[in-house]
Amino acid sequence: MEMKTIDAVAAMRACAAELKAQAGSLSLVPTMGALHAGHEALIRAAVALGAPVVVSIFVNPLSFGASENIASYPRSLTADLELCQKLGVAVVFTPGPEEIYPKGYSTHVTEEAIGKPLCGIARPGYFRGVTTLVVKLLNIVGPTRLVVGQKDAQDVAVLRKMALDLNFEVEFVVVPTVRETDGLAAGVKNPTLTTGMRADAVAISQALAKAREMVESGVRSSDRLVAEATHILSQHRRLRIIYASIVDIDTMEPKREVVPGRTLMAISAWVDEVRLTDNTVL
Predict the structure, then answer these.
(1) Is 39 assigned a catalytic role?
(2) pTM higher than 0.85 for the full model?
(3) How many separate domains does the chain show?
(4) What is the average per-residue pLDDT within 13-29?
(5) Active site residue: 36, 39, 108, 231, which one?
(6) Which residues pair with 275 in a beta bridge?
(7) Which of these, 32, 99, 103, lies nearest to 72 by C-alpha position?
């Protein structure tokens, strides 16, 4: 089937309704574009489910803080569309900002618990942008399932709670984090890292791997795990830790003791002027 590209809300709503009526279900992969190996894994997982797949590409202005430059966010629409076509996506939704947030727009959706710690402290207002956009996408596309990545664990937890609280009947499919050969989690900012920056950035995944090893060997103390991760990160001069925390996988509340399979180590750090986040289930 030839892939469609749609940039208008009304047309997307009509197309999605038609696809859902024909196939019985529909999968949505929300992205901000500049698609990389992590996005490819999301799209492949969605396509493998058998239902038509809609990929949204929208650089969400509500997700950027006052000190964050939306104009510098990477964009590669032509390459993104080629990848989606190759992977078997049914529709790519590429609205402009004025289509999603028309003049006079004044309504926002805020989850007020799970989004408060971690990135909620480092990037106030970020999750309000995520939830507002995803609510709009759920209403426009009406997907049966939302396909998201484990790399954005706090985003996933916030969106699950939002969907539960607001009675959205949408299934969440969470795809494992894709890592490059040196362990760095696939991300839109990776191509901007110099060789030296990258050498320091991989310490984040090394710290997470060490924490996993320690838990597998019987360590349960969050303090010990965070101390070891901090030690590993502190060996790299370009790294400035924003947070390194052990939290509940669903609520993002800090945990003093690890419960295997229910606990997450989450790390965010500056590598020079690039912010990276990563996590692992312990």
Answers:
(1) yes
(2) yes
(3) 2
(4) 98
(5) 39
(6) 270
(7) 32
